[in-house]
Every structure is written in C-alpha cells, then in structure tokens.
Batch of 4 targets.
Target 1
Amino acid sequence: MDGDLNLDYSKPIYIIGDVHGCLETLCALIEKLPQKWDSQIIFTGDLIDRGAKSCEVVDLVMKYNYACVLGNHEELMLEYYHAIPSKGYNKIWINNGGYEAMESYQRNGGFEKIHEHLEWFLKLPRFLEIPLCDEKGQRLFVTHGFGLPYYKEKEKKAEMVTWSRLKSHNWEKEAKKNYGVFNVFGHDVRKVPMIMENFAAIDTGCVYVGDDSKSAVLSALEWPSKQIYQQDNCER
C-alpha cells in the first residue's frame, strides 16, 4: 500500500513521469503545481540518465522526501555498480544514458555521492498502491512500467512491473478489465499522455529535445482528478 508516505488524502497527489536528469524542467513543472514544492509528489522512476543533471535530480527528490518507485534505469545503475546481482544488463547502462549520469556524479561528489544514491535506490519500491480513489472507486497504483497486467501477481512478478511495456500486452483488452485500481506509469515514451479507463501512461519524453517523434515535455498527473500539468524542456 502507501507504506510510510504519510499522505493526506484530503489533498491531491501528483505523479510525475520520467525526469531523466532534466533538473530545470522538473523545477519549472513543480512551480506550476497548485501547492508547488509542498505538493504530494510521486515519481514513476527513471530520475537519472540521458539528461545532464542526474545527481542533482536525485538530490532534490531526496531533499524534499518525495516518493518514487524504482525505474529500470535506477536498476541498471544498481547492477553496474554491483549493488545488486548481475542480470546481464550491466553493459547496457553506459550506452543508455549512464555516461551522462557518471559525468553528473563526477561534478557532485563522485563515488561518495554515487554510494549515497545507490543506497537510496535499493530502498525504492517497485510499486505503490494508494487507497485514495477516483470517481469510479479505483485506487491509485503507481509503477514504472505498465504494471496493470501483473497487478494480481505484483509481488511475485515485481520485476516485470518495472520493465513491462504497452507493446508487450493487449492494452486495449487490459483497459476494459476491472482490477479496482488505476495504474499510472512512465517508461513508455508518448507524445501526449495516454489516459484510459484504468491506466495512464505519462512519460512524454522530456529529455528528447530535437526528436520530432517525441514531445520533449515533462508531465504530471493530478490524482484523483487526472488533470495533466506539463512543462516543455527548459534545460540550459
């Protein structure tokens, strides 16, 4: 469930998609939220890699004690630094944004800071289920990947919850099922948020500036209203 998040269910929750080291864009988006820095925020993971300020983004999330689920990029970094057993992905990290992350850490404390953040990553849950319901009585289910198909076996198949993509499932069929939860996730980059009856894909590729197939926008979904807040990439 919501663990030790100490959420106030009389106030909305804001779920923010994959940040990927885009610090200025994240700060600008938070400034657009009604309660700004006092907002109840949950991140879908992938705080790091590709963008220039991975270390700074993680520091910010830790400073404000915002909630976050484990993203596949955090898992790749954990494996690269041998904080978790190898699954054969360790060489993938560097070529998928890890190099930029390393540069960020070199500017901000080096291995001491890396160790601090790896310890924090190890404590991140793979999913959060929040008993704050929408108009249909659906609880909030936050994951990094498309977790809905694994909801009934989420403990047993927790790793799949992190890595799952829409294209691996019949999402139109999933959208018609009643799990009692509404799944908000990142991982699948889309030009605009995809909001269905029981899930929302909110990674709008904020780091991908110059790629016409992506919007280079950071998105947040307000729960339970499902209103979307967005910020164009504004990295300097």
Target 2
Amino acid sequence: MTAETVRLSESWKKALAAEFDAPYMRTLKDFLIASKNSGKVIFPKGNEYFRALDLTPLGTVKVVILGQDPYHGEGQAHGLCFSVRPGVRVPPSLVNIYKEMQADLGIPPARHGYLEHWAKQGVLLLNSVLTVERACAASHQGKGWERFTDAVIARVNAQETPAVFMLWGAYAQRKAAFVDSSKHLVLKAPHPSPLSAHNGFFGSRHFSQANDFLIRNGLTPIDWKLPDTP
C-alpha cells in the first residue's frame, strides 16, 4: 500500500508519504490481502478505504468528526464515519445526530444517511480504523490503522488554519487528546449512540458552536442541511 497506488487527494498523499512508506503499513497491506485471499469480505470496498481523505483534502479541513470502526453490515460502509450509502436505513447513532442538529439548528432530519455533502465542505469524517470484516465488529483493530489515523489527526493539528474537533465518546476524546486546544476548538460530548446520547450528547449544540467558531476565524460555516436526495 503506497501513496501512489491509493485513491487519495494529492495534499494527503504528500502529507502522509512517510506513513505509507512505513513498515507497519506494509504489514497492514499484507494482512488485508491475506484476509481477502482466505475468503473474508472486507468493508468498505478497497477504493473507498481513504474516501474521507479523498473528499476532504488537507488544506480544506474545517471540522473533524471521529468515529471508531466502519459499519460491518452489508452495503453500509463507504469510507466516511457515521455515513451510509443511499438507500440504506439511517443507523441509530446518526438518527441521534440528526435529532441534535434539529434541536441546535432547526434542521429537519434527513431521510437518508449519506454525508458526502458535509465531507465536500471540509468536514473530515474519519474513522480510527478504516476497514472491518463483514459481520465482525472491531475485527481490524490493532492492525495498524490507528497509527495511520493518529498521523492524519496530527497533520490537521499542525495546520495554521484553526479547525473544530468534534470528539464524541471517550474513545474519540482519548485519540485526539494531543490536539492543541489553544488554536483549535475541541468540543467533547458523550457518543450519540442510543446507549449514551441522553447523557450529554443531546443539548451539546456542537453544530452551532462549530459554525460560530469558523465565522469568528474568517471561514465559511458548514451547511449542515443535507440535500433531500443524495
């Protein structure tokens, strides 16, 4: 797996060249190849592993939302955290994200869960682990992806332009604990999962806070309203 062979914006290819050349990425590539050769089905598709980075070039990142693993159900994952393909039922955590957006910004919940509209505006929808085996949650944790996505976050943190980090849940908060909060806006809340959303995710008003911060720093706010049809 090299920067030259993956579908990825040029800004990220340059910024992450050392990661792609590192031994751990070669080990990760060998693991993925061996998994596929043994008949295991991997989500998302190979050309979508880095979809979040491809849609949101480094210099355009305004907001970072961190997830943990891709969805492991058939036809769900397509390389953006919390997002699902058109026609797929909106997952419970995303339903709660929509509820909070409505309470915060008055935006009615979308009828789909396809979030590319956000990504194309500078919302980096980054999972910590970028692949998963079908019907086997967390199956690719500890294989190297976490180190790679740590490097992604570090590159955004190092940018001169300030960004907003939406850290939902303890996992995301630990992963991005090194982000410079004197330069960037770091927003923390419980995870939007039905198990924890009522413990402080609802009422967190992260979406309006993010846009207020972007405006104060001379940046265009995010249009969080998704198109009626993806």
Target 3
Amino acid sequence: MMREKFDEDLRYLDNLLLEMAMLNENAIKKAILLLDEKDKEIAKEVSNFEEKIDVYEDIIQKHCLKLFVEQQPAAGDLRRISAALKMITDMERIGDNSRDIAEICMLLPIDYRKDKFPLINDMAEATIGIVNDSINAFVNRDIEAAEQIEKEDDVIDNYFIMIRDEIIDIIKSDFDPEAAIDFLMISKYLERIADHAVNISRWVIFSIKG
C-alpha cells in the first residue's frame, strides 16, 4: 500500500515536470514570436510564463522534500527525486532566458524581423525540441534518449556559429550594428537554453545509472 502511494506521488512529480516543460516551450515560442510582432501583450505573456515557471519550481521543490521526509526513498528512487530537484533549477533558468529574449526582441527596430535571420527560427525550434526531449527522457526513464541530448546540443551550437558568421558578414554592409548584436544575443540565449537541457539530460542519466 505504501509503495502504491509512493508510485502515485512519483507520477505526480512527472506530471509537474511535464507541465513546467510545457511552460518553457510556450515561453520560448512566444519570445521568438516577438521578432515579428512587437506586441506588448505577447511580451507580457512571456513574463507570465516565467512567473508560472517560478511557481512550479517552488511546488516541485516542496513535493520532493515531502517525498524525502514521508517516504525516505532509497537507491534509485532517491536519485530520481534528487535529479528532479536539480532539473528544475535549469528549467527555471530556461524561463529567465526566454524572458531575456523577449526583452531584446521588443527593443529591436520594427523592420528587423525573423526573415532577416531565418536561422534564428530554426534554432529556436531545435532548442524547444532539445528541452522537451530531455524532460521526456526523465519521465520515460529512457537513458538512450538522454544520451542523445548532447548530440542534439551540437546542432544548436552549429546554429550559433552559422548565425554569428552571418552577423559578421552583414555588419560589413548597411545592417544596424546594434540590431546585429541583439540578434547575436538572442542566439546566445537559445544556446544557453540548450545547455540547460544538456544539464537536465545528465541528471536523467544520473537518476537511472547513478
């Protein structure tokens, strides 16, 4: 009976992590959308997502501490809960990075849209994918998927290098240098988000293998 209750609590933990990951996904998508739509309401949505992510971090922390105290988990279960506590720190920072992207997008000139840098959109989609894959690997206890995350991160790193090189080229033309730096910062924040996903994947591997 105790084990059934514990398993139910672990499933609840998984659901909380998935919901937090969904907030991260929405925050990134909305932030990048601001490149095309300088809409204060969308910017406010990103801020709201970031605040909700902070709330989820607090809820998950309390749930994990409750499991430690009430269930006194051993071995694999202990690693699983400990990993979740570490993962939510990275997930909270993903929310912060999404808000940072939104703030930069709102400062860009109105005519500097995604079509100036199509790779930014591709990089954002790949970044969302790596975040979701890392969380799904934890929930599904899929060590092979977790081990693939670092390879996916290489793709994100390559996007950053391509965007950086493209920016260097266009700065030599009549492109606004300040806007070029803003685009570079957006891609840098996306790269950081992917790095957080790699951290998450490493905690997934720890939770399974030790």
Target 4
Amino acid sequence: MAHYQNLIVAIDPDEEDQAALRRAVYLVRRNGGKIKAFLPIFDFSYEVTSLLSQDERMAMRQSAIDQRVAWIRQLSHYYIESGVNIEIKVVWHKRYHEAVIEEVAEFGHDLLLKAAHQQDRLESVIFTPIDWHLLRKCACAVWMVKDQPWPEQGKALVSVNLASEEDFHDELNHKLVKESLALAGFADSTELHLVSAYPTTSINIAIELPEFDPTVYNNAIRGQYLIAMKALRQQFGIPEERTHVERGLPEDVIPAVAEEIQAGIVVLGTVGRTGLSAAFIGNTAERVIGHLRCDLLAIKPDDTSEHDDHDDED
C-alpha cells in the first residue's frame, strides 16, 4: 500500500458529495502521495450544432470544461487549503471509462478510486457498467468506495486462493496480504482477516461411486486448505482466529464472512487478460463482487501478461 503514491479519483459528475475523493484524501494524509481528480465530460449537442463554426464549438467545449474544473475546485477547496496535493483535470471524451483507463496508462497512476452506489443499508453495492469496465480493464489497482466513513477499528478481509498449485497464485496471495497489511498499518488500526472457500463434494461422484465417502473427502479437502492457510498466516504473523476457511462457493462464502466480521473492505486479486478474454476479470471475482456490501480493492499481479489464461483469485 505504501507504494500507492500516484492516485487518480474518477469524479462522479452527478454528485456533490464525492466519496471516492474523501477516501483518497484519507489515504494520502496517512500515506503521502498525490491525487488527480479526473472527470471526462461530453455533450453530443456541442458536436452537431451546424450553425456554429469549429472555433465556436471548441470555445463552447472549453467553457464546459472550465465550469467543471471550477466545480471540482470548489468541492476540493478544503482539502487543497489543508495541504493535500490535488490536481484537477477535466477532459472532453465520449466514453467515460475509456478516458479513465487511458489516463491511468499514460500517467502511470497506481491506484484508481471510484464511488460505488448502494440501494439501501440492506442491499449489496450496485456497480454500474462503467464500474465493471474499470474493474475489468484498468491497468492499476481499483478501489470501489462505498459511501460511508472508513470505520474506526475496522477490518479488512483478504480473499486468498489456497487451491491452485500455480506459482503465480502464491505470488498474488503474498502481494494481497502484504499490501493489505500495509493498509491496516495506517488506516485506524484496521484488523486483517484472511478467507478462502473450499469446494463441496460433487453429488455425481457419490452416485457413481457407491463406496465413495463424501464426509472423508470433505474433511480431507478442508484439512488441505487449513494447512495451506496456516502456512500463509504464519508467514505474516496473522492470528489463527483471523483466518476463515469455509465450505461453499466463493461468491457465497466471501460476502458472508465480510458481513459476519463487519469488514470495511474486501481485498481480492484479479488476473489481467488479453484478446477476446479482455472483457473478463475472472468468473469468481465477478460473482463475488456482485454480492459485496462494503468497499472493494481489486489488485492485479505484478505481471498480468504472463497469466492471461488463468482465473482470478478466490
């Protein structure tokens, strides 16, 4: 987390209260760094006004940009006056998510923060199509922010993959835990928990093999996961009571554990993709994200290009 020094906040054009900007300021005040408050805008009517010359259309476009810059400056003035390093940038672009992704790539931002919306206190966080595009395609870590203050004595739940024998999953597990521990270290004594879901016995196996004992099988699988979790937690000095190995699907287990411990954020890993699969961050991650009621931090491996054919972190 300490290396996140070049933050970009995707400004919500329809909200006076910018939850993502608040969270970014919170992080920078404790961790250092700088913030870019970034907003892509577009008005198709400015492009089709045939009665105006190109220069006049450009002037109208610049006027719209200037108005939005002034609006963001007003929203940010308290932070700026208190010494937080905030750059304000508004661009003219037809596609919001593409503009953000291009900005991240061009200027090397290492953390993108964007507000996620929630229906009410009992419902999951609602992710818009723009959110999904950013989660799937943004080159840096993405923090989706729920509209609430960072909890004092809060908890961070890190989803780790204990099933795979692939080396890159071990590397990603370590990266997730290291960065989450760094976050916990400066974010109001946040408590770190680990979670992993293990599969249940297939009914087909029990039917086709009468001598098959599902209880023995389930216990063996759970034992393997517990051993792997112990090895991981001991490397980082995490107490056993803060680890959770539960039977079931990740999209059920992870949100349930997050709710049980009242986590302020869930941290999970996603594997970058190329070509036809570029629209996906991985089936497991997509299903988990859709059930969360708290902040989400999605982190990619150090080199996603090597792992295009693999699924994401559980």
